[in-house]
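Notes, p. 3: input format for complexes.
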Amino acid sequence: MKFSRARLAKELAEKAQAYTASVAFDRRLYRHDIAGSIAHAKMLGQQGIISPKEAELIVMGLVSIREEIESGQFQFKPEMEDVHLNIEARLIEKIGAVGGKLHTARSRNDQVALDMRLFVRDSIQEAIAGLKEFQRVLLDVAEANKQTVFPGYTHLQLAQPVVLAHHLLAYFEMFERDVERFRDCLARSDVLPLGSGALAGVPYPVDREFVAKELGFARVSRNSIDAVSDRDFVLEYEAAASIAMMHLSRLSEEIVLWSSSEFGFVEMDEAYATGSSIMPQKKNPDVAELARGKTGRVYGHLMGLLTTMKGLPLSYNRDLQEDKEGLFDTVDTLLASLGVCAGMVGSLKVNAVRTREAAGKGYILATDLADYLVRQGVPFRTAHEVVGKLVSYAAEKGKALSELTSGEYRSFSPLFGDEVKSISLESSVASRNVTGGTSPGQVERALARSREILGKSR
Ligand code: ARG
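Output follows (458 residues plus arginine):
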C-alpha cells in the first residue's frame, strides 16, 4: 500500500525513495505522532465527523501500535516514507479501511508541525532539568569553596583575588539565564498547529480547542499558513541550546586550563579523566575538551536550519524535513554534555593551596593599594599612577609588595601608613562588599539566593 501516489503512474525511483525517506530518523517522533493522532481521532468522534465507534477503534489501534513499537515488534518501512505514513499504514492493516478515516481533516503538514512542537516541548523540559542538575552541582562545589582564595583574571592576566565560590556562581547565573531562555521558548512552542490542514485550514467542524486541551497546549495557532511553515520554535530551541553549550564550553576551557600542571588548580577525578595511548604520565581532560568541541556542531545545526529556512516561500516545503536530524542531535548533545559535565565538575578535586599561591603572585593587590590611597583623599587617577610606579620599582627589585618596607612605600607617597602592610588576599576579598561582589558576606547571600532559585524550581 502506498499513500500519496494515486495520481502517479510510476513507482518512485529507488534512489529518489532513499533520498526522500525520513523514517530512519523521524521514527523518533512516534510517541508524539500517536499522541497527536489519538487526540485528533477523539475530536473527530466527538464532533460527529466520524462515528464515536470508529474513533474508538482508531484509538485502540493506535495504542496497540505504540505497544508494538515499544516492544520492538514494529517494522518501520522506508518505502512508507516517514513515521506518519508508517503508523497510518499499520493502523489500516490492523483495523481495516476505517483506519483511513484518521487522516480526515488533517494533512501531514499540520501533523508534522504538531509532532515537532510536542517533541520540542518535551525536550525543553529535559533541558531545564539538565541545567538545574548542573546548577545543583555548581552550588555544591561553591558551598565547599566559600573560602578558597582564587586568582581572578582579566585578559588571562592576574587581576584581583576572588573566592572560587564566586567564580563558580558566575556559571550558576549563566545557566539560570539558559533556563529562562528555554522557558521563553516553551511559551512560543506551546501552540497547537493541528487544524491548519495542508495550509488553508480544514473544511470540517473540528474543535481545535478540544485537541489543544487534550495535548496540553496553551493555545491554538492563529494563522494556518504560518502554522505549517513555522519552525521558529526549533530555531529558538537550537539558539538556547547553542548559548547553553557556549557556557558549558567556557567552563570546560577553564577546567582544561586549571587541570594543567602549569595551573594545577584542580585535579580531575580518574573516572572523568582519560589516558594517552603513548605518554604514560598523561591524565587528560577529554570530557571537557569534547564538551568544548561539541559546541561547534550545535552551533552548526542552528546555522544549518537558519539557512534552510531563509529562502522558503510560504507555506510548507519539503525542505522543512531537514529540521529533524539537527534538532535531534542538538537535544542529544546538550543533554549528554550537561550530564557528563555535571559528573566531572562535581568530582573535581580543588587544590586550595595552589589557587592561593597563584592568587598571591603578580602584584594582584595593586588595586587595593590604590584604593588605600583613595581612602586617604588621593584622587583615584593619581593613586593609580603612584601604585603603578611602586609596582615597577618592586618588579625591578624582584620583590613582592609584601616584601617592601614602610620606608620604601612612603618614598612613593607620604600617605602610606603602616596599615598598608596588613593588606592581604583576605582583606582584598573582604573589601568587595557590594551586591554581586566576592566578599564572604556577599558570597553567603549569593549562595542563599541560588539555593532559593533551585528550591523553587524543584
Ligand atoms: N516527512 C515530512 C517532514 O518531515 C512530513 C510532511 C510531509 N508533507 C508533505 N506534504 N510531503 O516534513
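The two ends are 49 Å apart (CA to CA).
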